[in-house]
Amino acid sequence: MIKKVTTRTIRGWKSGDHKISVLTAYDATFAKLLDGAGVDIILVGDSAGNVISGYETTIPVTMDQMVTYIANVKRGISRTFLVGDLPFGSYQSSIEQGVDNAVRLMKEGGAEAVKLEGGIRVAPLVEQLTDSGIPVMGHLGFTPQSVNQFGSYRTRATSEEAADKLLKDAKALEDAGAFALVLEKIPANLAKVVTDTVGIPTIGIGAGVHCDGQVLVLYDMLGLYEDINPRFVRHYAELAGTVRDAVTKYIEDIQSGSFPSDEESY
């Protein structure tokens, strides 16, 4: 197993047989478990707004929150590569704003790269970030920060025109210096075309098997988050029920007086 995953490691996986594993995390405890299990990349996503803060969308997530989540995860890892999301409103106003906030995620949070949403529109920012020594992961297809503009959670780039635009966006991000690219909720055949066309790794989420890697929100994958159940999520555990059962038993043991026992008392 590689001692430390870096951008060079990730780029190298583009031409090999290794499929890149990515999961989200927001705290040191889960981060340590993922790191020990061998996950290649932890994405501290603004999905924390949904699964941690209970927001309906990712829009309300702040820079201060992201810095805290990233710093939490940083303390739990040693091998895994750490990517932090630039939240909505932290890079839309200007290149200068985007650079300043990306620097915060790295200096204060400890991120090793940042992720942002958009294609040709954000390419100048990606180029500036890259020139400044900040690795960038792109994000195309369904971009959660634009949910109000989309007006739905439907699959993106389903028309020929939209597919052509997405491919151009992907090339623009690669040319601007992005080291990897998330493709979310796009047709699998389009994801294959993008993956075969660009020279940087693609990370799919609801984009089929042909991407260079896959990402899921940890709370979805573990069956902890029950508010929504996207088609692309595979539950590798059903922990929501396990947690409820454990808490119910804890309450029962308190009421019956069986907890704490003599052995559990001082």
Spell out the key features of this protein.
266 residues, TIM Barrel, 2 domains, 11 helices, 41% helix, globular
Question: What would your notes on this structure say?
Answer:
The protein is an alpha/beta fold and 266 residues long. It folds into two domains: 7-235, Phosphoenolpyruvate-binding domains (TIM Barrel, Alpha-Beta Barrel), CATH 3.20.20.60; 241-266, no CATH class. Helices cover 41% and strands 14% of the residues. An eight-stranded parallel beta barrel has the order 1-2-3-4-5-6-7-8, surrounded by six helices. The mean pLDDT is 96.
What is the beta-strand fraction?
Answer: 5-15%
CATH class of the largest domain, please? Alpha Beta
Strand arrangement within the widest β-sheet reads: 1-2-3-4-5-6-7-8
Give the tally of structural domains: 2
Portion of residues within helices = 40-55%
